Amino acid sequence: MSHTARTQGPSEHMGRRTVVTGGAGFVGSHLCRALLAAGDSVVCLDNLSTGRLRNIGDLLDRPRFTFLNADVVEPFAISGRVDLVLHLACPASPVDYFRMPVATLRAGGHGTYNALSLARDKGARFVVTSTSEVYGDPLVHPQREDYWGNVNPVGPRACYDESKRFSEALTVAFRDEYGVDTGIARLFNSYGPDMRGGDGRVVPTFIKQALAGKPLTVMGDGSQTRSLCYVTDTVRAILALAGSYETSPVNIGNPHEITMRELAEYIITLTGSASPVRYVEAHPDDPQRRRPDIGRARRVLDWEPEVRLFDGLKETIASFTPAGDLSAV
Ligand code: UDP
What we know:
The protein contains nine helices and 13 strands. It has helices at 26-37, 94-99, 101-122, 158-178, 202-211, 231-242, 260-271, 295-301, 309-320, and strands at residues 17-21, 41-46, 65-69, 84-87, 125-131, 182-187, 190-191, 216-219, 225-227, 229-230, 249-252, 257-259, 277-280. Strand 5 (125-131), helix 4 and strand 6 form a beta-alpha-beta unit. Mean pLDDT is 93; it is low at 1-12. It binds uridine-5'-diphosphate.
C-alpha cells in the first residue's frame, strides 16, 4: 500500500454514508452494490435517462440503500451526514451522448458543480469518474496521466470529452478554492453484466448481435483498439481511490489492448455464433488507439486489474442469455 492510501479495512469505514450520482447506471449500480457490501449506507441519485431501475432492483429494499429519482444538474438537497460523494452521472455511450449533447455537457458542468457543492457543504471526500476521452484521439501511446490529450473541441464527441475535461477542471478548482478533498478517476472502457443491450457500446452490441445470429457491425476497418476492463476491477479501483488521499488524476483500465476486429471474432467464438462480420461506417473522430498506462494506479492505489478478457466476456455473455446460462457460453 502506498503512502498516499489510507490504510483502512472495511470495518474501519463501517457506517460511512456515501452518495453515488448515476448510481443506477452500469458502473454506478455495481459500485452501489460493492459499497453496501463494504458496510456503507448508500444514497443513489439518478434521473434514469440512461440508467435503469432494474440495475438496482435487488437493492431497493435494502435498509442501508436509498434511491433518489433526481437529476444532478438541478439543485438537490440531502439531509444528514455525507462522508463521500462519488459523481458518475453522465451519459457515457457515444450513441447516448450524440443524442443528448446538451444534457451531457450539463452533467459535467451543473452536475459536477452540484455534486462538488454537496461535498464542500458536508465536508465529504469527492471523487469524479472522468474518462480516457479526455485524451481524445491520442497522439501518445499508451496514455499516461500527464498527457494533455488531442481533443477536437467542436467535433461530435466534444460534448462528452469537454464535459469531462470541465469536470476535472472544476474539481481542481473546488480543491484549490474551498479545500475540498477530491479525487479524479479516468476510466477507460469498462464492460460487464448490466450494460444496456441497446446502448450502442461495442461489447453489448457485439454480444447481442452474436447471440441473435446477426452480423457483427465492426466500424471502420476494425483496426482501432480499445483496452477493456471488467467492471468489478473498475469498481475496486474507484473504491481504492475513494479510500485514499490521492488528488491527481488516476487512469483506471486494463492495459490489455485489442482491435475491434479481434474482439468481434472473439465474441463470435465464445458465443459459438455463426454470425458474420459486417464493416460499417465509423463514428466521426473515433479514437484509433487507446491503452492506459496504469503505473500510477499500481503505485498509489496498489491496484491492478485481475479479470481476464476471456472470463469477463463469459460472465457478460451469460448475463445476456435468458437464464444467465453459462453452459451456453
Ligand atoms: N464499435 C464497433 N461496432 C459497434 C460499436 C462500436 O466497431 O457496433 C467500435 C467503435 O468504432 C469504437 C469501439 O468499438 O472504436 C468502442 O466503441 P464504444 O462505443 O464501445 O466506446 P468508445 O470507446 O468509442 O467510447
